Amino acid sequence: MTAFQNIVEHEHGTWALAQVMGRLGWDQETTMPRGAAVQRSEEMAALETVLHARRTDPRLGDWLTQAEAPDATGKAILRHAKRSFERNTRVPAKLAAELARVTSVAQGIWAEARARDDVPHFLPTLNQVIALRREEASALADGGSLYDALLADYEPGMTGHEIGAMFDRMRPRLVALREKVLGADRQPAMLTGSFGHDGQMRLSRRLAETFGYDFTRGRLDLAVHPFSSGSGSDVRITTRVSEDDPFNCLYSTIHEVGHACYEQGIDQAYAFSPLANGVSMGVHESQSRIYENQLGRSRAFTGWLFDRMREEFGDLGAKNAEQFYGAVNRVSAGYIRTESDEVQYNLHIMLRFDLERALISGDLQPGDLEAAWNDRFLSDFGVAVDRPSNGMLQDVHWSVGLFGYFPTYALGNVYAGCLMKALRRDLPKVDDDLAAGNLTAATGWLRNGVQRHGGLMEPRDTIAQACGFEPDEEPLLAYLEAKFSDLYAV
Amino acid sequence: MTAFQNIVEHEHGTWALAQVMGRLGWDQETTMPRGAAVQRSEEMAALETVLHARRTDPRLGDWLTQAEAPDATGKAILRHAKRSFERNTRVPAKLAAELARVTSVAQGIWAEARARDDVPHFLPTLNQVIALRREEASALADGGSLYDALLADYEPGMTGHEIGAMFDRMRPRLVALREKVLGADRQPAMLTGSFGHDGQMRLSRRLAETFGYDFTRGRLDLAVHPFSSGSGSDVRITTRVSEDDPFNCLYSTIHEVGHACYEQGIDQAYAFSPLANGVSMGVHESQSRIYENQLGRSRAFTGWLFDRMREEFGDLGAKNAEQFYGAVNRVSAGYIRTESDEVQYNLHIMLRFDLERALISGDLQPGDLEAAWNDRFLSDFGVAVDRPSNGMLQDVHWSVGLFGYFPTYALGNVYAGCLMKALRRDLPKVDDDLAAGNLTAATGWLRNGVQRHGGLMEPRDTIAQACGFEPDEEPLLAYLEAKFSDLYAV
Description:
2 copies of one chain form a homodimer. By secondary structure, the first copy, chain A, is an all-alpha fold.
């Protein structure tokens, strides 16, 4: 076998074992008996040891120095394999083990601190996590930016500087839009009515099918925090049900379907290779967001959904499709990112991005984080944070060491804005389809333009070739300003 | 670290990864999307490669030559580790891979042959599987009996000769009992009534709890063929529902609960070691059988169950507890092992045992198997086999290479007979408990006598120390003759 063939075979096994790890994660969140938690963590640690040994196998290093790719697909495989090998061999095993140990405990401490609104309880742990991630970033950065080294795990090819500049351009327009919308005389009403569990799940399944999710290669279950899991021919989604708020369930489902359809849509020719995964968190989020927002919360599609909701639940409080559209897209003041809306969501991300960049660079000390968060929240959202669980303790991410992850959510929105602009250009009658509950053309366009390529191209290139133009923030901002100015008559 | 400590750490990881493999098997039979089958087989193959490499790791061989056990538990750990290392290193990797490949295809061919009653379609594959298993047995046997080498995977320490002699003593008495019972004037009636899916599952859960299954460390799902899966703190069971025949569901559940309680009952001190599994298939089956039959189908317990069934399903057709007891223990002529009863079940096993021993020794050619099966069936069951799917094609075992497995079912019954005799000696009032639906003392006795020991002792010793006498077939035969002579008044 050639060095290249050896790499392909090695990656095949690694990919398969990584799927097994994903399946254990799914099981843990959906079906695992609660008494199995300790044993499961040992099982996952044993499998993680196996995966780490494969990813740092010295033979892989040798093959990578010798391998020649036969074609463009081969080049992409080598690019991923090389990046993974370097990333994994640069971090000393002792540091990786220490990070795993500390972050697994840190999540519990964070949960306690959030429940008690007790920042001092969390600070020593946060200090420790940041110190370890900085140490890891130093090992990875090779003299470059620490933050960029962490960002590369989630959005390869992107820099903190580039994202920061883009966010700085977006912020004033989003703050201005938020102020206009929240100050508007016309405010949409929430739904009223009764939204039973089974009805929400039935409609969730129908929405998943409508958006092209393939149930023969997946399944829908319940979880506390909805997620999508797996690649290839086993991509599972979860949702949750709140009997007061059916949109929580339905739009969580559509969001996860976007992630899942990306994985299900990857070219079968890439099966069991590093190309058989979504290429980055940002591109992944572009799919979940365009399914959920640009398509799922459009006036056209909510017109169709309004009828389906009335069939399932009877009277919703909304008199007509336009009122229903208002309820789906309602903007209201609030502290919590995950309960936010299209207008305010990106402001949440920008706040976190600037603070975490400063934490990693050392410009901000964890002890000063609460004050910095609250100042910034007041400035961007016009509201004073009332307690830490509504402020710096609201998200799990930092406790488990996820620094560099937050910006990919907003990057996904930016990419979704670009993709929707290009999709409308290529499918001028898309609103007629959406109004009929027919997503075939829209999701087919995304599958062909983005999803099928998997890891073939770099993230930004994936979006650029799908759109036919270089992505930037303008289409998203124009879309949001137009949509919400119209809806709120401002 | 000492050689012994290295072994303990190595076995810890292997045990954890074997649990992951078990979980994949559970998922495959209960929740996996059907389109994921090909990918799943690749995932399992990748994990099997990892497990095989661990089990044949040359370092393990070195440690085993040097290790000294600090105590009895340590000695048992070394015994298991040594046996596993020898078993796995003796079979050439190429042969193991070929066996895996051929048996994975063979199961599909067997299923086709069974569906079409087409023995010639199955014969070339069966020939191939037997040839490979004989080759494997030669590698394992070290000049000894081929069949014993295969049997050792399921029932270490037992020989085909020993089992054959015991079965030869049992057969005439079981044939005589079958003839008396089937020829009796008094024949119990089957139940009539309506047995809804949800009611059966509700009662299944209740039975599982009644027999001591710990749902915080397990769960109950549906599967085509009921099974129990996993060890330690994640032991899951499955059942199936036939709306015509509630006993199928309820007694499948109790049977799997027996297996699961064995795993759940093992001493926590053995966690993540080779002792943290049931010690053999025969001892495992002794637990499932005594839960299902000696306890679950007793007159005392069915009296309690009769009331629970009427609460759940209303009129059952049975006028009183005695008629219900008859329905639970009804013996009827039939071809299929898995639909059999306490009287005829062991005759099914003896038939298979003699034939598979002859197939492995070479005394019987696969081409002569159908005639041999049908002759023997007529002689032991008094009925001519009408078609191969009711004869030699009824069981999946041989197609997947399981030779040496069948006798452990009957051995389990023999052990269950011994355990029940000892249990009645130590708990003379057990029938009063059973009549009240109280299994605490009986399952506690089994946990303390058998289950908690896991792999500490050899299989036969495990039973002998629990009973206080050497196990043989007499208690089982005496139990069956007394129970069915009474029930059928013969």
